[in-house]
Amino acid sequence: MIMQSGTFKWAEELGASELGMRTLGLIVQSYAGQPFKLEQIEKLARDGISGAELRIGVLSLVKSGILCAVKKTWGERLYFITAPLFPRLQACILGPVYPHEEAVNRVSLEREGRPGIEMDLFRVLVWIGQNGLLITAKGTIHQKTISRLGGLIQLAADDLKHIPLHYPHKEVYPANTAVVLDLLLALGLIERRGSWTVNEPAVAEWLRLPSDVMRLAVYKQLLTRYIPADPSLQHYAYAISTEHIQEGTWYLLEDIICWMKGYHMLTGPLAEGQTTFMLGWLEMLCGLGFVDLGLGEKGQAAFRWRGKPKLEGQITTAGKADRNFEQPLAPVERKFYVQPDFEILVPSGVSYLLRWELELFAQGLTYDAMSVYKISRESTAHALKHRRTPADAAAFLEQGSASGIPANLRSALEQWGRELGRTSIEERVLLRCSDEEAAERINRYDGGQSKLERIGPLDFIVHEQDLKEMYKVLNHLDLTPRKTVHSESAIIYPRFDPALQAAGDLSVEEAVEINPGHPGPREPQGWIFSGTAIHIYERDEEPLSLADLFPGSEEIPQAWCKELRSYHASTAKALIQQALAWRTKIRLGIRGKVTEGLPIRLLNGNPWKVQVLMLPSLQSQDLSHSDWDTLQLLLPEDPYFKG
Fold first, then answer.
1. Residue 311's CB: how many other CB atoms inside 10 A?
2. pLDDT reported for residue 490
3. Are 447 and 404 in the same domain?
4. Which residues form the Helicase XPB/Ssl2 N-terminal domain (predicted)?
5. Are residues 348 and 439 in the same domain?
6. Domain boundary among 193, 215, 237
7. How far is CA 168 from each of CA 35, 258, 339, 372, rounded to the nearest angstrom?
8. Same-domain check for residues 636 and 559
C-alpha cells in the first residue's frame, strides 16, 4: 500500500488510532466512498494485519468521525467514509501524474467544452419563473413544455449517452432535460407545489454566486449521485479533480488509468462497462462545460480541464489543508453595456442576479463569453405582464449599465410608457347569490369593511386576498357556496434586488455557505441516483462492544487471552479454532523465544497441524502441537475500548 506521509499525521489529528490509520488506507483504496459491511473488511487483511484488527480499526474510525455507520431496517450495519473527507484522503494517497510528454504535446482538440451548466440552469430557471411548470394528470410536464425547455439547454442528450442515468418517466424526458431539472431540484432551486415553481429564497442566494461556485455545487451533485456503486469508478471521478491534475493541461485517459493502478485504486483489467463509463464521464463533463476533449496521435481519448472545481479543504500531499479556499473571490464584474441599436452586451463576469431582471426586459440573442440581449417594444410589453413598467426598465438599465443608456433608447422607453399599460384586463372572483335575502345578509355582515365590492343586487366581487376568509364567512352564515372556485393567479416573475451583496464581496467559504448545493443534513431532492442510497438508512449511533466484535468471548477461559501457557493438544486446538473464527492472531513460545503468527487454517491428520503466517517475516509454516511450548490468544489492543 502506497500512502503519502501526510495522511497518517492528518488522520491522527482527527483522533484516529494507529490501528485505525492502517485500516483507513486499505478502506480508501478498496472501497473508496462506497459502503461496506464489517465482515467484508476482513477480506482486506494483508501484510500481517489480521481481520480482527481491521474490525477494531473500523470502529476506531467511526468513533473519530472519519467513518459513518448506518443501520438497515433489519439491523444490518453499513460503514462508509464521510463524504467531505473522501477527496481529502484520496488526494493524500495519490502522487504526481507523469504523462508521456511527447504524446500529450500531439493531442488535437476534438470537442470544446460547452459554455457551462450554470447558464443552462439559469435559462431554465428564468423560464420557470415566467411561466411555471404545469403537471399533467400522469405527473409529468407537458410535452410542448419539455420541447421548449430543450431549446434552452445547450447540454445535449448525446453528451450523456454513456452515463447510466436512472430517473422516472425516462420515456417522457430526454436525458439532458432530465439532468437540468434534477440539478434544479437537488440544489433546492425549484419545488413542486401542484406545479413546479421557483424557490424564491434559494434562487435569490444562488444568483448571488459567481459561476465557479455554481459549477462547484453542480460538480458535487455529480460526484454524489451520478456515479454507479463501483469503487473503481468513484476513485476515477474524484481522482481527475485532485490537486495532481492541472487545469489547462492535456491528459490521455490511458495515462490516468496507469497512474491510478500505480496507487492501487484500480486493480486488474477494467471491464468494458468501466472503460465506457470513464469515457462517458468525460463526455458529460464536456457537455457541462468543465473540460475539453481531445485525441492523441494514435486516437487515444484525452481531456483538459477548462475550469477545475476545487473541492474545499482538500488535503495536499504535505498533509495540510489547502487554505486558499478561504481567500476572497475575484471581484464580480457588475456592469453591462447598452448600445444605441438597443442591444445590450453582457460580459461573462456580470452577476446572474443582474441578468435575472435583464431576462425580463430584453430578449436574449446569444449566450456565450459575451452574451447579447436586445430590448424592444415587445420585450417591454412582456415585462409589463410581470408588473415591470417601461420606467422600471429605464431605471434598471441606468443602474446596471457601465455608461448609462443612450438618449434614443431612453426616448423610446418613455414613448412605450405612454402607450403601454394604460388599460388592463384583470380576473376577479364573482360571488353570486340566488336571491336578494342571501345578498342582504352578506352585505350586512360585511359591514362596509371593503372585503366585498357590490356590483349589483345579487352580485359581489371578492378580492383575492380575502377569498379564504370569505369562505369562512359564508359557512358561518349557512350560505356555503355550491361550487368551490379555484382561482389560479397569474404567475409573476420574482423580483430580486440587484443591490444585494454580490458573491464577489464574499470569501469562497462564505459563498459556499449560502449555496443551496452545499452538502448539508437534508436528503437529496433530485430524481437521478446511480449509487448506493445511503441517505435512506438510519444513522447508527450505538457503539459496539468487545462482545459484539468477538461473539462468545465471555464464554472462553479468560486465561487464553491473558498469558502464555502450555495446553493439552485438544485445548490448544480449541484455542486455535477460536482464533480462526475471530480472525485474530496468536502468540507462541517456541524454544525460549516468543513470536506471533496469524492462523490460516487447520490441517487434518495425526497429529493435526495448523498453517500459520509467521510475523513479522510473513513466512508460512505448518506447526503441530509439539512445535511450541506455550500459546496465547491475542485480541487487538486499541484505544477504542478504553474510555
1. 21
2. 63
3. no
4. 337-444
5. no
6. 215
7. 25, 37, 46, 36
8. yes
Q: What is the CATH number of the domain that holds 593?
A: 3.90.70
> DSSP letter string over 157-178?
GGGGTTS----S-TTTS-HHHH
Contacts 24+ apart (CB under 8 A), 418-425: 420/377, 420/380, 420/381, 420/384, 420/389, 420/390, 421/384, 421/389, 421/390
Q: Are residues 386 and 443 in the same domain?
A: no
Encode burial over 453-473: b for 16+ CB neighbours within 10 A, e otherwise. Answer: eeeeeeebebeeebeeebeeb
Please tell me the distance from the alpha carbon of residue 44 to that of residue 58, in angstroms, as a whole number. 12
Asked if residue 247 is part of any domain, the answer here is no
What pLDDT is stored for residue 640 in this prediction? 58
Set of cell numbers at residue 30: 478498496
A 10 A CB-CB count for 450 gives 9
C-alpha cell at 641: 475500548
Residues 443 and 352 in one domain: no
**Average pLDDT per run of 10 along the chain, which is 643 residues long?**
50 74 90 91 87 91 89 84 86 84 84 94 96 87 94 96 92 95 94 86 93 93 93 95 92 94 90 96 97 93 93 46 43 80 94 94 92 95 91 94 94 92 78 92 74 89 84 86 58 79 48 45 68 76 80 91 95 96 95 94 93 94 96 83 55
pLDDT attached to residue 452: 85
Helix/strand/coil for 31 = helix
CA distance 88 to 7: 9
- End-to-end Cα distance, the chain: 31
3-state secondary structure of 1: coil
Specify whether 126 is located in the same domain as 196: yes
Residue ending a domain, choose from 215, 245, 266: 215
Judge whether 49 lies within some domain: no
* 495 domain residue, yes or no: no
Handedness of CA 629, 583, 560, 607 (dihedral sign): negative
Amino acid making up residue 579: A
Give me 440's grid cell. Answer: 342582504
CA neighbor of 388 nearest in space, from 48, 212, 633, 129: 129
Domain with 611 in it: 548-641
d(CA 243, CA 315) in angstroms, rounded, equals: 9
What pLDDT score does 500 carry? Answer: 58
Here the contacts of 380-386 (C-beta below 8 Å, separation 24 or greater) are 380/413, 380/416, 380/420, 381/416, 381/420, 384/420, 384/421, 385/490, 386/130, 386/360, 386/492, 386/493
The rounded distance, in Å, linking the Cα atoms of 107 and 332 is: 34
> Is the same domain home to 133 and 185?
yes
The contacts of residue 362 (CB under 8 Å, 6+ apart) are: 344, 373, 374, 375, 376, 379
What is the maximal distance between C-alpha atoms in the chain?
A: 116
Number of compact structural domains in the chain: 4
Cis peptide upstream of residue 340 (ω within 30 degrees of 0): no
Rounded-to-integer distance, Cα 446 and Cα 544, Å: 68
Give CA–CA dist 287/273, Å, rounded: 21
189 in the same domain as 136: yes
Residue 454 within any structural domain of the chain: yes
